[in-house]
Write a structure and sequence with these properties.
The chain is mainly beta. It has three helices and 13 strands, in the order H-H-E-E-E-E-E-E-E-E-E-E-E-E-E-H. The chain has a 13-stranded antiparallel beta sheet with strand order 6-5-4-3-2-1-13-12-11-10-9-8-7.
Amino acid sequence: MKTLKMTTVIVALIIATGFTSRLVAQELNGREIVEKVYNLPTGDDQTSNLTMTLINKSGKQRIRKIKQFTKDLGDVEKSIMFFQSPADVKNTSFMSWTYDDESKSDDQWIYLPALKKVKRISSDSKNDYFMGSDFTYDDLGDRKLDDDTHELVGEETIDGVDYYVVESTPKDEEYMYSKTKTWIRKDNFIGLKKEFYDEDEDLLKILKIKKFEEISGFLVITSSEMENVQKNHRTTMILNNVEINTSIPTSKFSERMMMRGM
């Protein structure tokens, strides 16, 4: 599950893309399986409409409409999203730059129209939840392959589809999750589910992929849900009007554009 780039995901939440289905001839270890997830091609850029629905334990919903753009520049992937509704979040924008360089952390910014100021997300704030959703700022960024130790802990067949089950443990003992566990399809290396465990190793959240479809030759996750099982709160993400490789200008991804909006 390519949750490591969730703004692509989400924002990143949340995209997995085209991979020719085939049987894996040799035995793969946990790191090799996750590396294949990381290396799924995503196209040069993508534009889409995102509907984010926040659902509390009483079933009450808050629906947010977002326009988002992503562009892969080779050594950096840039994404930006603009909140279009409801009124209390309209014109808020969020931007993330994810670097291929293993030594560089993501850069993230948020623009709050009430303050008329772009704020950089500090490393201390990466554990905060994004706009009331069940995704943290860290979830929306890119977790580097070697930030974790990946172990193949099992294989399962669900509804006739074969999966690898990989457990990833952070090398940084201060990281907000003690481990994650991911169910990854053997045929195309898209994840069905990812479990997040808190510092006490109790289950905290579950990310489920509800639907993916082929668009312009790529497999794109178009429906997903993150559930915080401890708070009984859910966030659903539905993508539509997805367009790939439309030559989005690099100038789209700037603080000036965040303030200018749509």
